[in-house]
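Fold it.
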Amino acid sequence: MVIRKNMNIKYALISVYDKSNLENLCKNLKKNNYKFISTGSTCKKIKSLGFDCLEISKLTKFKEILDGRVKTLNHKLFGSILFKRDDKKNLREFKNLKMPMIDIVIVNLYPFSKFIKHNDKSKILEMIDIGGPSLIRASSKNFKYITTICHKKYYKSLITNLNKNNGVTDLLFRKKMAEKTFELTSKYDRIIYKWLSNREDSKKTKLRYGENPSQKSYIEKNGLQSIFDLQINGKQISYNNIIDVDNGLKCISEFDEPTCIIVKHNNPCGAGCSVNLETAFKKAFMADSKSAFGGIVFFNRRVSAKLAEYLSKIFLEVIVAPSFENEAIKLLSKKKNLILLETNKFKIPKIEFKSTLFGTIYQSIDNIKINRKFFKLVSHKKVSKKILDDLIFSAKIAKHLKSNAIVLSKNKQTIGLGAGQTNRFDSLNIALKRKKDNFGTKDFVCVSDGFFPFIDSLKILNKNKCRIVAQPFGSINDDKNIEYANSNNISLYFMKNRLFKH
């Protein structure tokens, strides 16, 4: 049976800064019997693509003024968007406006965040969109009747829904798009607020205090995205939070598969990789649940509502992820002090620096890829692909632990960590003790961020049933370590580089 499309003419209001993908959008809307209403520049673009378009100013009898600063703020236009279709009084008032009935509002906003770094503050101010947010907020409020599309990434979903529903959208879709709209406008306004509150010549933001309450502290922006722009919940971010988040972001960026890293006092204290984020978190947490108390948790995938339920039962200081499901935010936001950071577009810089008594010192970020090519077997005994993956996992963690760093792991889960000691042997003993306290595991792997200067470390590892070890080369006793490994059936790998972090 052929279903005939609804032949009633419908109207879509389109006013977009980003005019890419307009042709396909208009073509599909036209197929579904939509006519177009638009503002000046968008109207010209639509016409240039070969479609008819009504200009708003001709419908409202109100020309754009103030160089386009005021063009959509008109009672006729907003009346068409906001009136209730099933209210007789509303319907009578709307008819008196002599305006087309608008069913879809498609608007994307001025890209304010892209202009923040501009030297001319007046140009930044011009990128504060007024009409756009007003239009999409109005249409989203009236989602019972109106569809709102606030970003070009939703064009495809709109077309799919129209084709599915005989040229109209369903209520569930309209409600979802309204939700996305208010999420976008709230973030948009927050970015403007953050810029205005720090717009004076000073780039300094005062912090509560430094490492200790007796120390005063502030952060000076370096041109990158501010950590405060990433925050979606929680108390004021502290000096120590910033230091920990800096380290954790660098560490989590090493991993492609679903991963969780828990950081405490600027050191990873637990880490896990798995096929899903929930299992990765459980691995990281169980690696050292005592240290995880009050820690900072990092994820490299979207946090689901299911995962948020686990997280909400634990005392945590900060949760960092590329994004959060709305239900996850609602659940976690019940903890008013819990800081949530959304880092979807954050990029790791290529240069890092530290302040010293003698001046600021700079170095390139250590961005060498840790993969199978990073390791070279120097003993006789080879290992399986799975074990080699554990060595790769461990080296990525060791890279972000304070030296001297030791990482013991199995099945892409840390089971013992030693860091920040003045000699490597002490770090190894600490890692082994933590493994013994939390795990009875055999056949685990050990990675050291620097070489073992003597065979004593291999001896104690062998005694504790660890026979897969990786370390950088460079010791005068490298040959003795290799000889000991071969004599005791230990798989010994040398790494391309040392992984010191002071």
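Residues 1-7 have pLDDT under 50 and may be disordered.
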